[in-house]
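User: Structure tokens for both sequences below?

Assistant:
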Amino acid sequence: MKTLKVFGSLIKDSLDTITKGSKTYHLWMGFLTLIMLIGMYCYSIQLDQGLSVTGMTDRVSWGLYISNFTFLVGVAAAAVMLVMPTYVLKDIDFKQAVLIGEGLAVAALIMCLAFVVADMGGPSVLWHMLPGIGVFNFPNSMLTWDVIALNGYLFINISIPLYILFRHYQGKESKKSVYLPGALISVFWAVGIHLVTAFLYQGLQARPFWNNALLGPRFLASAFAAGPALIILVLAIIRGFTDFKIEDKTIKKIALVVTVAAQVNIIMLVSELFKEFYAPTHHSESAYYLFFGLDGKTALLPWIWTAISMNVLATVILTFHKLRNNLNVLYFACILLFVAIWIEKGFGLIVPGFIPGPYGKIAEYTPTGIEIGVTLGIWAMGALIFTVLARTAIGIETGKLRYKK
């Protein structure tokens, strides 16, 4: 009963914290709410008229929704780059940022599930994903494994920070024997969620563009570049608008992780380009469409070359020690890298896999306003969830939120 009473007090204090703040905070929350309402309106149109209001067709059946889903799985997995140094290697410099990273993972995972719901057409078909009720097709379906992996990782990333914050809210230290086993599991689970997502594409033999042994490792490399890059940008915003102390050396250590992952990602990109274009076959047509266009169809050319240019520029900036240690330059490089990998793992991965079609015909894909509206709404929802989680966690960690007996 005492635990429930303390937990109720935590919820009450958290609600009090997230509903009060500066004018800037209220404008931010109001803006996110407005974008979410627009997204809900667009989704209501999709529910009423079906997926025909999107740019997807029977030829290109995955588009903006699955692109964002794939990218956000990587963002969620990137939390392990803070969890492992903090909980396993006991690096105190990462300790300041680990709860922020886990909160970002929770928001990203919820967004992932929201994009899956949007892509399935509506929540009425989700019962198929329930074991014993729907057509779960376990253990043969890779999608089934992905659902299990994502929900399991979501549970881990909610339970560990909740326990730590709950103890700190009471003015007590968290017990390592309670959270360390879960932290160790999350290290392997984070790798698993992105590998399983890669296997979803890699196992489709009829899509040679995805049927690539390097796809899984490249997923991880890009995730460990884009995810920590976003964490750095979030930490910069938190430093500027809250009392939460984050040292420069914490950001610089995370930047080193981003640098190594970005360099590995570039090496893997070069390897893929060599494989596709040095000795091309008819299986290289998807890559030709993506990078050079095919039969006069060039919708993705500006996207992919912009992404590669931004990716290379960001990696070069991060590679030089003096540039990386200049925080303003670092933030610019992180923005470039984040956007570049979003394009690469979105339009640069999903759409070309469907082009050309089975009979050699090219049906290009362009997202509609409805898709863009729903997508922005889900991103706004994720940002709002993260803001609420971060504001509560910062209040507890700075000592402003404490249980009053």
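Moving on to the next sequence.
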Amino acid sequence: MSFHTSNSLFPMTVPIPNGFPVQINSKPKNKIIFLDVTPVSTPIKPHSPNVVAPMRNNLVAPHISNDIIYENIKPVFTLLGIMGVLPITRPSACVNQFQIASSSMLYAILVFLSLVSYVLYLSLHKVQILRTAEGKFEEAVIEYLFTVYLFPMIAVPLLWYETRKIANVLNGWVDFEMVYKQLSGRTLPVKLYKKALAMAVIIPILSTTTVIVTHVTMVHFKPMQLVPYVFLEILTYMLGGYWYLLCETLSICANILAEDFQNALRHIGPAGKVAEYRALWLRLSKLSRDTGIANCYTFTFVNLYLFLIITLSIYGLLSQISEGFGIKDIGLALTAFCSISLLFFICDEAHYASHNVRTNFQKKLLMVELSWMNTDAQTEVNMFLRATEMNPSQISLGGFFNVNRTLFKSLLATMVTYLVVLLQFQISIPDESQNRDEEEEVPYNITSATTEAMTTSTTTIMTTVLTTLAKKKKKN
């Protein structure tokens, strides 16, 4: 076997067996790259125990002791766990699970059974509610409202059912953090702990105040009757805060990833780096979809519940608008305002998160300068842009509907339609007070007419008698 070589210092050919040289210049420069497969990470080789590793941003074996996303939202998760609605167990750091046979689940069942028993006790013993509203219709609206206020109890078993999926989403965030640290060399800079702590403190205070104001202005409840309403009011608005933090986390991570991608392309532009960012973005897009799927039934119920509360509250306000705005209408106005605000924030935050994950990232890709990149890197960028088009990142509640500003507009339009129909139906029903006045006026008119007729007939008879007597005297 022989080798053909021409120059040992500057070889223009490659030594190949049997003397068949191949020119280096004749090799194809562009290779086929399978872009739909995530690049395999290089295995980490074991290092000697004598090697000194850096204390921060350890790239040799990146490890996160506590998952950053959970630690940032921990105050809200803790409060929901105390209320017994989100029984997530953490056997170790970065591991989130849902176990039916666990102490947290047993505690959640005891809290829920206590709440249900308390509500049944109040309803079975028929605790009197002294209404301050006047009028049969408004009393009925208030009674319906305070029955609907107890509906969020249904959300507790729904959250139990979806806790396993929520735990899987949190584990997905842990994987995202690990991959991001391997790619960028730093931990994920998410700073939402102060917001979560403020929500865990402020929302219970505001919810309790709202319930007290509503009950004082609309009905007079005993203090023992306020307990279930306060609990369910806090639960409703804490779910809104929990949803806000999830969507805000998606928005922040999408912006961080877009900025890191642009900074990486300014200095170096290999195809492998673009592929790694593409794989990381696909993880983020999947997390945005999983967020909607994991909270599907819970927030579908919350949106419908808020829609019903808003409709009844505004209906009660508009039905008595001709009589003027009174003290009893403060509770209805406050309930309507808070419910509309919560529904808007749920829809707006989901819309903002979807926009940042997809549309904003597409703008970053379109602004990339491709002229100085090689062919492989340009192909990767184009495939990245195509991946953002083919992978939906909208937050959908189990495929029933997308949570965005269009949903808020549709619910308001439907609510206006129902309000117009109900108000027309109310106008067509005659008022009882008017009927009573008409009934009282009818006997009065009949009596007066009869009296006048009797007086007229008596006068005529007397005149006739006197005229006859006068004629008889003249004849005599």
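User: Anything stand out in the second?

Assistant: The chain has a mean pLDDT of 76.
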